[in-house]
Write the structure tokens for this entry.
Amino acid sequence: MAALIGPHASSPDSPERRRPAARLAGGYAERQMGAAPPGRQAEPMTIKLPGRWAGHAAALWSLTYGLLGLYWALGGAGFPFGRHDPDWEPGASLLGEATPEAAGPVIAVLGLAGAAAGLAIGLGARRGRTALLAFAWPAALALTVVLPDMRVLMVVAYAPLLLVWAFTGVPGGQPLGELVPWSRINLLVLLLGGLLWGLAALSALRGRAVRGRWADPERARRWGRWAVVVAAAIPACYDVSRLAWAAGIPLGVTEEFWRFLDESGLRWGGLFLSAMGIGGAVLTLGLVQRWGEVFPRWMWFVAGRRVPPMLAVVPASIVSLMVLSAGLAYWRLVLVRDLADWSMWATWLPSLTWPVWGVALGAATVAYYVRRSAEAGTRVEA
């Protein structure tokens, strides 16, 4: 204890030695949490940001996809948007009416511009950083949230089942290739590009401190709890209906539709998705629970060790983006196609809350990262 509170505290008569142990521990925790002493303003939050590799990676992705755009513009096969998409339906995608002749050149030009911007970020350019950020952030938003749709979440959620169906066959006899056509894989490619551009944008912020009351660890703990409650509660409506279908109850759907689910075996796919939703809700609670920071005892091989923050931050961030994108796509479908059939409410109504779910999960993830960064006691300049 003397090593913790200073060399002058080793004397039995020292006032510091006479303080209760709990008070000493509390003061240490305050310093670790970044709390400012009374009368002093809290220091700006400093976080670790990606290195220059992120700009180079975004540049490489942009150049590659730009070349694809040029290929499509010149008549190449495989254009994944518009009516070339086998999943095409009105309102599902913002590029639902795109053609290779019109969209191909635009993709090529944006890809070339992205390659130049990403290379500049990767080289650490200081001049024109505002312009680079003005390109990087919209690119990240468009590629992760605006252009993808619910199929990204569907492919990721069904990935374990797809591995099983590769050997057993898809229930109902549907070819496996129809579940993962190039148009759906392309959406994953777009998501990857958006993530790289988000990292590149963060990389361009190196050298700037993150300021704001929201970045105070104690404040983040409070608003993070509310975000976790919302992010864990919203999927419950979706999960309840799918669990009911698996139990033979046509909750929120017509008898005819439930018979289709039963005969095709797809109701078991819904059960799998609801199980994943419940598991995701439990993991979301970990963002404010002790076991989300220290591995619990039943994980004997890592029990008692600190949970690496990125182990929670990375997947939670990606899922929040996918959920937000899927929710916005459902809103487009409802507004464009007027899908508000109340006899089938379970197929569309719960999904309209997904944008709130995505935002709440993203906020909860930010709060978790702020707290864990402060608790680590390392303040790396952004």
Observations:
- DSSP finds 14 helices and no strands in the chain.
- The radius of gyration is 25 Å.
